Structures are given as C-alpha cells and as structure tokens.
Amino acid sequence: MSDHQTSSSLENQQDTGFVPGDDFSAKWTNYFRLALGRMTDEGARQWKKARDERNEATDIARCEKHRDYLLAYSPIIRFMRQNINKLGGDLHSENIRCRKCDTQQSGGFEKSYGIILCANHLRDQGHVEDTMAHEMIHAYDHLRFQVQWSDNLRHAACTEIRASALSGECRWIREFWTRGQYKFTQQFQECIRRRAALSVANRPECKDDVQAAKVVNEVWDSCFSDTRPFDEVYR
C-alpha cells in the first residue's frame, strides 16, 4: 500500500470511524465502533456498503432459496401468482430477481422488468414473503387497472395503499418487532398511510412530503377499501 493510500485510510478512519478492510481486525473494530456509537453516519454508510459487497453472493443465494420456496408453497404468493396469470401476466423465478441494492428499499416492481428483491436488505423468509406479496400487488394493479406509474401520483398512492394493506407488511406483529411501533389502536391504518406516503414522496414528480401525504389522503377511502383480488384483508 502506498503512503498516499495509507494516509487516505487513516484520514477516513479518523473522520468517520470506519476502518476499510476485510480482515478479522477491521471487521470487529467496525462492528464495535458501530455498536458503541463511535462511527458517524457516513462511516455507518461505508460499513454497510462494504458489508453488502462482501456478502453479495451469500445474500443473493439465500434470497433465491426463499423466493423459490415461497413460489411453491406460500398461500399468498401462490394466490397472487394465479390472479396475475388470469390477467395475462406471469411471474416466476426468471423475472423475480434477487439483487444487491444500493437504495434502502426491500424491493421494487417495473412493468417491463418484473420484480426485484433487494437481497442485502431482506432479513428472513417472512420479510421476503411480505416484499414479494407487496410487489405482486403492484403487478396485479398494473395489469388490472392500467396504472400510470410515471405521471399520476394518485395512481401511485392508490397502489401503494393497497400493497401495504394486502401484503401483510403492516400487520401489528411486524410493526412491533421490526419497526418499533407499539400502538394498539389505528396501528394498521397508520402504517399503511406512513409507508404509502414515503413511497409517493420518493417519486421524482412529487414535490415534497406534504404533497405525498395530501395525495394519499385524497385516494384513501376508495383504495383502502378495495381488497381485490382478495375478498378481505388476508394477513
């Protein structure tokens, strides 16, 4: 390693608390600094990036194993797949792809690509199932309602409300254990509103959080009550 590289590494460590490297010492130093609050936000970002790059192959293999199992055995995934097939679509292991994502989302749907599962952000099989169900509801809405993804925030808000309500990601136990939300009353609705508004706010055509919340409120009644293709909220 050159003197310049050594100097840059030391400066990075002093500035952020993150120590570059995949050796045992660097891994544990970073782990304890992060756990003890001795790493800046930028240092934590660099640590997560290095971790995701180091674990990419393992994360993707685990994600693909969960995906294949859920396609074969999960009641909600099988049900959604059948209803998407009825509309002329087809989702399978070739267009539900596990990848390393640089964004903070768990997954995404793109009409010409299919579904992406962000393997480095998925904790376990239950998280993969919720994410797959969420994105499959987007796929269903795209086929059933001709969603205008790029220029209609009301359409975007409606499908986000439905996906959060019907996928199971806002059930109380998920909110309690993974997101630290402890309310017993109105928790389900508040989770859906929060997650839908966040998704809408991230769209380039949305001005800010205020506009996102306003659009979600405008379509709330009709979209929250629309449980198609389910008879009622399933999970």
What does the model show?
This protein is mostly helical and 235 residues long. It contains ten helices and three strands, in the order αααααβββααααα. It has helices at residues 3-16, 24-35, 41-54, 56-73, 75-86, 125-145, 153-167, 172-179, 187-201, 209-224; strands at 96-99, 107-110, 114-118. Strands 1-3-2 form a three-stranded mixed sheet. Strand 2 (107-110) and strand 3 form a beta hairpin. The termini are far apart.
The number of helical segments is: 10
Q: How many runs of DSSP E, i.e. beta strands?
A: 3
Q: Which class do the helix and strand fractions yield?
A: mainly alpha
Mean pLDDT: 88
Query: How far is the first residue's CA from the last residue's CA?
Result: 55 Å
Strand order of the biggest β-sheet:
1-3-2
Largest sheet: 3 strands, mixed
Output the radius of gyration: 20 Å
Shape category:
globular
List keywords for this structure.
10 helices; disordered N terminus; 235 residues; mainly alpha; three-stranded mixed β-sheet
SSE arrangement:
Blueprint: H1 3-16, H2 24-35, H3 41-54, H4 56-73, H5 75-86, E1 96-99, E2 107-110, E3 114-118, H6 125-145, H7 153-167, H8 172-179, H9 187-201, H10 209-224
Parallel strand pairs: 1-3
Antiparallel strand pairs: 2-3
Task: Write a short abstract of this structure.
The chain is mainly alpha-helical. The protein contains 10 helices and 3 strands. Strand 2 and strand 3 form a beta hairpin.
